[in-house]
Fold this sequence. Notes:
Blueprint (H helix, E strand, L loop, with lengths): L4 H7 L9 H13 L4 H14 L10 H32 L4 H25 L6 H46 L4 H14 L1
Helix pairs in contact: 2-3, 5-6, 6-7
Amino acid sequence: MSKPANEKKRNRRSKVQMLPEQLKTELDAMLRDGRLSQQEVLDVINRQIESSGLPEDAKVSQSGLSRYATRMEKIGAKIRQSREVAEVWTAKLGNQPTSEVGKLLQEVVRTMAFDTSMHMSESEEPIEPKALSQMALAIQRVEQAAMTSHKREKEIRKAFAEEAAAAAEEVAHAQGLTREGITAIKAQILGIA
């Protein structure tokens, strides 16, 4: 059975996507730079297509470039927004242990998984087994990451307490504390971990 025409068109790569890697990299750089208008970028890239010996039909159209630039701008906006959110939270948690940032990211993924599952359950369409499997796998990985993070945090606390106890023992010994006093201080420090 053949695919509908609009599905064929959606799955087809654009002329921009089919450009040789070097030309596409240059095109992306010119669009990101923003010093040239789209028309100027189009002229430059089409001249380069011509001079590189590619066929005439490899040239990019104004509408094709515009669609590509719009798509890239949307992706860029999402990336910028993600970075801004990360910067805000990193600044807020900057003096917190790195595990706090990890916990935050785990919570973000949990929230996204919950929102996605709620959206899927509200849909009239049946949930595809593959989507359900991927959701379960994502949740499993988040929980594994949380357990690993918790275990690592405990190991770090224990190592820190052992170092602090050793340092306290040296200072206490140098100050002439009794063996029982030193043992009590170490026990107190190690009990915190």
